[in-house]
Amino acid sequence: MGGHTTVDDTISSGTLGVVSENARPTLRPRLFSVGHSNRTAAAFVEVLAAHSIATLCDVRRYPASKRHPQFDRPELGALLDDAGVGYLWLGDALGGYRDYDEHMGTPLFRDGVAALLAAGRARPTVFMCAEKDVAHCHRRHIADHLVRDHRVIVTHILDADTTAPHRPQTTLF
């Protein structure tokens, strides 16, 4: 997959960027979220283009689909490359885990979030999984973390002309 990178490549190359403690905050960072669902390849690229997405971070732990092979990792990478969209697979770090809340406390998760934030600082970026409805996907946990802990504005892309702002889940203890 030639020009595609992983979270380890991003971290080891030093491209995550370090923000000085003395740096003045600027605009709040913004990331998008999308589920590929059962869209055709052309329809998916159209959705990304409608929102000016320049980088897609794949947060599927197992980036393959028997029912929708256009979203298998190699095919998706080639599709995005043809569309001029960068591809970063973060599935090891941000993919679905049985106990996602526990996984969110690991260094691997923190490294994945750092890579996602770095991508978002560089270019308009979306993180993607399979489910169209974020309420049924682990992307909601990632979005909650980004909003609460990093003050990121997360916008869920539903279609070419429909988005929804992320509203973090409330927990009652």
Task: Give a written overview of the molecule.
The chain has 173 residues and is α/β, with parallel strands linked by helices. The chain has a single domain (5-12, 27-165), classed as 3-Layer(aba) Sandwich (Cobalt-precorrin-4 Transmethylase, domain 1). It has seven helices and seven strands; from the N terminus they run βαβαβαβαααβαββ. The chain has helices at residues 7-12, 41-50, 73-83, 91-94, 100-103, 107-122, 139-150, and strands at residues 5-6, 30-35, 55-58, 86-89, 125-129, 153-159, 162-165. A hairpin with a 2-residue loop joins β6 and β7 (162-165).
Write the layout of secondary structure elements.
Elements: E1 5-6, H1 7-12, E2 30-35, H2 41-50, E3 55-58, H3 73-83, E4 86-89, H4 91-94, H5 100-103, H6 107-122, E5 125-129, H7 139-150, E6 153-159, E7 162-165
Parallel strand pairs: 1-4, 2-5, 2-6, 3-4, 3-5
Antiparallel strand pairs: 6-7
TL;DR of this structure?
This protein has 173 residues and is α/β, with parallel strands linked by helices. Helix content is 36%, strand content 18%. The protein has helices spanning 7-12, 41-50, 73-83, 91-94, 100-103, 107-122, 139-150, and strands at residues 5-6, 30-35, 55-58, 86-89, 125-129, 153-159, 162-165.
What's the number of extended β-strand segments?
A: 7
Helix fraction by DSSP (H/I, runs of at least 4) = 25-40%
| Global Rg | 15 Å
Order of helix and strand elements from N to C terminus: EHEHEHEHHHEHEE
Annotated CATH topology? Cobalt-precorrin-4 Transmethylase, domain 1
At CATH level 2, the architecture is: 3-Layer(aba) Sandwich
Q: Kindly report the average pLDDT value.
A: 87
**CATH class group:** Alpha Beta
Distance between the termini: 46 Å
Low-pLDDT segments, ≥5 res:
5-25
What structural class results from the helix and strand content? alpha/beta
Quick one: biggest sheet? 7 strands, mixed
Percentage of residues in strands: 15-25%
Order of strands across the biggest sheet? 1-4-3-5-2-6-7
Principal-axes geometry comes out as globular
Give the tally of structural domains.
1
Number of helical segments?
7
